[in-house]
Design a protein that fits this description.
Belongs to the peptidase M32 family. By secondary structure, this protein is mainly alpha-helical. It has helices at residues 3-31, 38-56, 60-70, 77-94, 98-121, 124-149, 153-161, 167-193, 207-221, 256-274, 291-305, 309-323, 332-339, 356-372, 380-392, 418-437, 441-446, 451-460, 470-478, 485-497; strands spanning 228-232, 237-241, 244-249.
Length: 498
């Protein structure tokens, strides 16, 4: 290890420790913080982000990178990969002036808090000025990053979440999905209409009981509560750090399935974080590769594994016992049909896996138009509703069910949305490869045993961190780069062949 490289490791370790502290403060803001703490929390988060930015843009960093790269032949393969990731993050950071970093931090915190009020009140106009500020600042930062990285503005924003991907490649994949969906969805709906509708268990389902069931299923997947917790927030998420994971969900006492599937989804994220390479904690190479793979892990657990007939065979008697349910509605076959019921719906996080890509394609189209300046925020609610009608044949009756539903834009995360569907495609590839390598996995899921599946994922995804690209990880694990073919095959098998 060279002296320059060792100094970079030390500096990135400190910066990432501060970023972790910011992550816990964000979790607290979303779950426990009283409303009166908003201004103080905004100052705290802005100070942390500016401090990290100052550390990253220290003039000495350029010299350290130059010296470390000059002696690159003395580095191990992991150290070389770490140096590459350090440099990518450094280029992103140095492209944006400190003034803009502080402005974005304050603006996104204000906007997110305004969104938390505007969403339940169904008042887009209330949050629109805050969102306009975030959008303007994001465009400015995106242009600065684009100039530094030699990319288009949207691609520079995308690179923060999915390094190496481009809007051109997403356009190609999403274009094929947008042609496939209108052909496939009517066939699935027609098949389900020809069957007797599944019965929905009757509530109410007390929140405390839902939490009890959620925790039991989290433990079955492999979640360790000595290294994490489950809480409530307006929008489900997984935060914290690998050794202190913070999962949240939201509850509906008339329907327990939404919260439980949300918990399982976030548990997939948590298992990825928990199993990242421990030897590289707080180093860029030890972080998750990108959000496409991150979403693949959540969707693999929720959609591929936990909506399978095998897992529901395990879950059904536990759910029945938890809620003291009885009768045909609680039978595994009926619960499986409920879990795989396809119906166009307004809310993305509650969408089935057949219609889910349409939700993401819509958001991707809208955010690329917003970033390019081809659409104004005044037009966003109407464009959202038109897109839902065109893609899924339904029109949201109010903005709470439309453009106000997701936190991402209000939190400044432009460029994130396409990774959800890229993750769904990767999840299908990875689950098929895992069950091909270990045909016993479905039987194990029937017993609530995730150990074989998680061991395969640790070896082929989790333990690799960011040492390889997304495509390289998928090629090693599945034999192919990311594409939509296995996902489409999965939909055919689960919804049309069964």
């Amino acid at each position: 290890m060279t002296d320059a490289y060792a100094e970079l490791e030390t500096r990135f370790g400190r910066m990432n420790a501060l970023s972790e502290a910011g992550g816990v403060l964000n979790w607290d803001m979303a779950t426990l913080m009283p409303a009166g703490g908003a201004e103080a929390r905004s100052e705290q988060l802005a100070a942390l982000q500016v401090t990290c930015h100052q550390m990253m843009t220290d003039p000495k960093m350029a010299e350290l990178f130059e010296n470390a790269q000059a002696k690159g032949d003395q580095l191990s393969s992991w150290q070389a990969a770490n140096l590459k990731e350090m440099r990518r993050q450094w280029l992103h950071a140095t492209a944006v002036p400190e003034r803009l970093v502080e402005q974005i931090s304050r603006a996104t915190n204000r906007c997110e808090l305004a969104w938390r009020e505007a969403r339940p009140e169904n008042d887009f106009q209330k949050v629109k000025p805050h969102l306009q500020e975030v959008l303007d600042l994001t465009r400015e930062a995106g242009q600065a990053k684009a100039d530094a990285l030699g990319l288009g503005v949207y691609d520079a924003l995308l690179d923060q979440f999915e390094p190496g991907f481009s809007s051109q490649r997403i356009d190609e994949i999403f274009g094929r999905l947008a042609q496939w969906l209108p052909e496939t969805l009517p066939r699935v709906l027609e098949k389900q209409r020809s069957q007797t509708p599944p019965q929905r268990p009757e509530g109410p389902f007390p929140q405390a009981k839902q939490e009890q069931l959620g925790k039991r299923l989290m433990q079955a997947v492999g979640f360790n509560f000595s290294h994490g917790r489950l809480d409530v927030s307006l929008h489900p998420f997984c935060g914290g750090v690998p050794d202190d994971l913070r999962i949240t969900t939201r509850y509906d006492e008339s329907d327990f399935t939404s919260a439980i599937l949300g918990v399982l989804h976030e548990t997939g994220h948590a298992m990825y974080e928990r199993n990242l390479p421990a030897d590289w904690r707080r180093q860029p190479v030890g972080e998750a590769r990108g959000m496409a793979l991150h979403e693949s892990q959540s969707l693999l657990i929720e959609m591929q594994a936990c909506r399978s007939a095998d897992f529901i065979q395990f879950m059904a008697p536990i759910a029945q016992e938890t809620f003291a349910g009885s009768g045909p509605a609680w039978e595994p076959h009926n619960l499986y049909r409920l879990a795989t019921q396809v119906e166009p719906d307004f809310i993305r996080v509650d969408a089935d896996e057949v219609t889910y890509p349409a939700h993401v394609i819509l958001r991707y189209r809208l955010e690329t138009a917003l970033i390019a300046g081809d659409m104004s925020l005044d037009d966003l609610p109407g464009a959202w509703n038109d897109g839902m009608r065109d893609l899924l044949g339904i029109t949201p009756p109010e903005d709470r069910l439309g453009c106000l539903q997701d936190i991402h834009w209000f939190d400044g995360a432009f460029g994130y949305f396409p990774t959800y569907t890229l993750g769904a495609l990767a999840a299908a590839q990875l689950f098929e490869a895992a069950t091909t390598a270990h045909p016993e996995i479905p039987q194990h899921l029937r017993q609530g045993d995730f150990s074989t599946l998680l061991a395969w994922l640790r070896t082929n995804v989790h333990s690799l961190g960011s040492s390889l690209t997304t495509d390289e990880i998928l090629e090693r694990a599945t034999g192919a780069k990311l594409d939509e073919t296995v996902f489409q095959r999965h939909i055919q098998r689960r919804y049309l062949d069964d």
